[in-house]
Amino acid sequence: MRKPADQTEKASNKGNVKLRKGLWSPEEDEKLMVYMLRNGQGCWTDIAKNAGLQRCGKSCRLRWINYLRPDLKRGSFSLQEEQLIIHLHSILGNRWSQIAARLPGRTDNEIKNFWNSTIKKRLKDSVISTTSPNNSISSDPINGITGGMISFEEHELMNFCMDSISATTSSSSMQNSITSATYQFDPFPPLQDNSHEINIAPRLFNVPNHSVEGGILDDYGGFEQYVTGFENDLSVPSLENDGNAELMFDKRSSNGKYLIDVDQSIKVEDFDFGTNNHWQGGQNLKTGSDQLDWESLLANVSFSPYLDFQIE
DNA sequence: AACCGGGCCAACCGCGAGTTG
DNA sequence: GCAACTCGCGGTTGGCCCGGT
Fold first, then answer.
1. Name one GO molecular function term (predicted).
2. Please, which positions of strand C sit below 7 A from a protein CB?
3. What is the pTM assigned to this prediction?
4. pLDDT at residue A57 in the model
5. How long is the CA A2 to C1' C15 vector, in angstroms?
6. Tell me: the pLDDT tens digits for A141-154?
């Protein structure tokens, strides 16, 4: 945590505007939230200015992404998420944004903190414990993947992924590959919901040659979909209703419920920021079923919820 | 009850890449 | 081509919380 904002004010380089630093007050959160709901994402410097915040745009962006974003999950990481983080980190390293992109509702900062504070320590402990003679594989998710022991399937999986990554070594070649005969498919699809039973194995299937629409190739050989209002798009749609916005999001351990008067311009009902509800824009990714049949999904490529484009 | 130390995590910092004029 | 600006990312900091003593 930082010092309270009013203790760390300093003059901005431009315009002698005092910029606040440190913790965000509920009033500041409210201002930013209301502004984002009304106007959506734009230039962060303008957002900070127009929202009446004495913050730099960078600070506003961080606050929005890491805390105020409606589609953020709250609470501890699930077992599936934990396993996926460990797995992705084994391949991607400290590319937290890339890892976060595969965990809907989680931020890179959150994952980074989780890794540094929890997983790292447990991995270390796990490595130590696996060196002891009487140790066997436990139900610990760490041991399922790492802990010094990687299953044959995992190893093959990683080889596959690394091959995919190495196949396209630069962003320029990546861009060229978009229109080339073949392209690398994202081996790490995002988790749909942590309540689902998830097979963390990537989709090992071939995609016929076709032009790619509705997405771009990322820096690691993956296919980044254009997903409006979800983890790839942190903006929110503008709201044009009248009344009040009742916004729910927890502040640390307590579940706060903010009733915001939005200048007679917004009315949001049943606007729940809880863990089970995602932002409207992400609903195109939801399957509507509590239990996904991953085998059948994998068997039928065109039915995959990850595919946001048509395969010809 | 007071103190201490480690964990957690929000937020800052610096840097590189991309964009704009 | 260049400088200024903006954005996004990863590393780091440091205050709060909480369990142990």
1. DNA binding
2. 5-12, 14-16, 18
3. 0.58
4. 86
5. 6
6. 444 444 333 443 34
CB A171 within 7 Å, strand B? yes
Q: Within 10 Å of residue A43's Cβ, how many Cβ atoms?
A: 10
Structural contact between residues A295 and A192, judged by C-beta atoms closer than 8 angstroms: no
pLDDT over 60 at A22, yes or no = yes
Among all protein residues, pick the one whose CA is nearest to the C1' atom of C15.
A1
As a rounded value in angstroms, the CA-to-C1' distance for A187 and C16 is: 39
Distance measured from the CA of protein residue A82 to the C1' of nucleotide C6, in angstroms:
33
The domain spans of chain A are 5-68+237-278, 79-231
pLDDT exceeds cutoff 60 at A244:
no
Long-range contact pairs involving A47-56 (C-beta distance under 8 Å, separation at least 24):
A53/A20, A53/A28, A54/A9, A54/A17, A54/A18, A54/A19, A54/A20, A55/A19, A55/A20, A55/A21, A55/A28, A56/A12, A56/A19
Establish whether the CB of A94 is closer than 7 Å to any nucleic acid atom in strand B: no
Q: Does at least one atom of strand B sit less than 7 Å from the CB of A28?
A: no
Is the pLDDT at A31 greater than 60, yes or no? yes
Q: Which CATH superfamily is domain A5-68+237-278 in?
A: Homeodomain-like (1.10.10.60)
On average, the pLDDT of chain A sits at: 54
* pLDDT tens, position by position, A105-117: 888 888 988 888 8
Q: Which nucleotide is nearest to A2 (CA to C1')?
A: C15
Tokens of A45: 């410097």
Nearest-nucleotide field for A47 (CA, C1'):
C6
From the CA of A42 to the C1' of C7: give the distance in Å: 11
Q: Say what the pLDDT of residue A127 is.
A: 64
Q: Tell me the C-alpha distance between A35 and A47, whole Å.
A: 8
Percent of chain A, pLDDT > 90?
A: 0
